[in-house]
Each structure stands twice: as structure tokens, then as C-alpha cells.
Write a structure and sequence with these properties.
Blueprint (H helix, E strand, L loop, with lengths): L1 H13 L4 H8 L3 H9 L6 H11 L3 H4 L2 H10 L6 H27 L17 H25 L5 H29 L6 H20 L10 H24 L2 H33 L2
Helix pairs in contact: 1-3, 2-3, 7-8, 7-12, 8-9, 9-10, 11-12
Amino acid sequence: MVEFGEKVKKLREEKGMTQQTMADQLYVTRQAVSRWECGARFPDLLTAKKIAQILEVSVDELLSGEELKKSIERDPVLSAPVSNMIQTILYAVASAAYLLMLVFSLYSFYPAQALKGTPARKITAINVITAVGYLINLCALAAGLVFSARNSLSAAKTGAVMSTNYIISSLTFLAVLMDMTIKQNGHMGLSGWLDLFIPVLSAVCILVFFSRRGEKLSPVIIYVTAAVSFIEIAQGFIISLRNMTDLGFAVTSVHLLGKAGLVVLLVYQAYTLDRKRKLL
């Protein structure tokens, strides 16, 4: 990063150009140019190309191949203002949906007065685990919202935020399986095992693709993950439509819509990151 900044500063001064002049041509602040030159920050790849054009050099002269790779992985995945704003809005909506589910889950700990003293009044370990799962998802999405609002949601951070829901789903299902085994009150069929392993596989795919190790991976693995997620969301919607009360259906629908928005965002993030990586 420092090497890039030194090159920019040297070439700019050779052209008799001030930091403010360069900033005006790039539509950024003078402070941004200053941070690039001192190595405190790094421009995104598109901005680096514009800098090269202004200084009349090739991008390769400004950036080494390794610097380009680091730039792509370090920069926000969605750096364009409109894309970043939409991403921030979707994270905000999803955060609100999980907050609603958390509140609804906690409220279920206190059923109607008529249920006192009955088995329905008992708070089970599964109830607690479900609530904790909603809380962890909410924290992950809130972190994604903050990073997105600051335009600092890198590929690695994106992978961590987007994989959390799948990890929590698999852990929650594992807890249900353990509860069934201990109480000997159920049987795990093939579909049950798929419900356990598909989220694990999805989380691994997301984490690997959005890490530097995923540079050569096709985004198809993310598209397949998204397709499976949409099927599960549709099934959840149908189940809630058939079996839930008006309030339960409304809350679950908000939750599922929030998840659907995140899946769409995941696909676009993967598509954008793949395009940036192919520029090298």
C-alpha cells in the first residue's frame, strides 16, 4: 500500500498537479488523496484505474499483481454508492425482521394465564436455543449494517455475516436432534439429515468463496446455495400459511421476506466480487 502511495505522489508531483486537482478529477476529497499517498487507505480498483488514466500510466505501473489482489479483497464488495445504499437498506430490513423474531420468541416464554401449570407453560432448551440463534443472527446482521453504512464491508466480512444464518440453522437443528435422542421421542429421516448438512455445506461455500482462497472458485456455488435457500423459504411460507395464527403468520412472513432479501443480496455480492476478480 505504501509503495502505491509513493508512486502516485511522485507521478502527481511530476505533472505539477496538486492533491486538490487530482481529487476534483476523481470526484473525491483532498483528504482521500492524502490518505492514499501516505498509505493509510487504498482506493478501490475502479478508482485506481482512473488514477492511472489521470497520471497517464498503466494500472500495472501503479499496482503490482499482489497489490491488485489485496485491493479487491480489502475493498467493499459493493462500493458503488447506489449498490451500497441498497445493501445497507436490505441489512436494515433483515435486522428488523430478526429483531421481531427475537421479540416474538421471547414473548412465547410467557404464554397465556390459562396455560400455567401445564406442559405448554414449560420453557424448553429448544426454546432458549432458538432465541439465542435469533440473537446471534441479529448481531451479525447489525454488524453488516454498520460496516455497509461505513462502506467498509469487505469480502471477508461479507462472508462472515452471510454465513452466520446457515451456521446457526445447522447448530439449532443439531440441538433438536440431540434433544430427540435424549428424550427418545422422534426419528431422524433422510430429509432431516439434509436439513442438518445443507446449511453446513452452504456456510462453508460462502466462507470459502468470500475469502482469498475463493479467488478461483466459480460463483455458481453461491447461486446453487441461493436456489436451495429460496426453496426452503418457500416451504417455510407454505407451512406458516397452513398452520399458524394470523399473528404467527405475519411475524414469520416478515422473517422469511427478510431472509429472501438477504439471499438476493448474497447473489449480487458474489456476482460483483467475481467480476472484480476477473479484472486481474
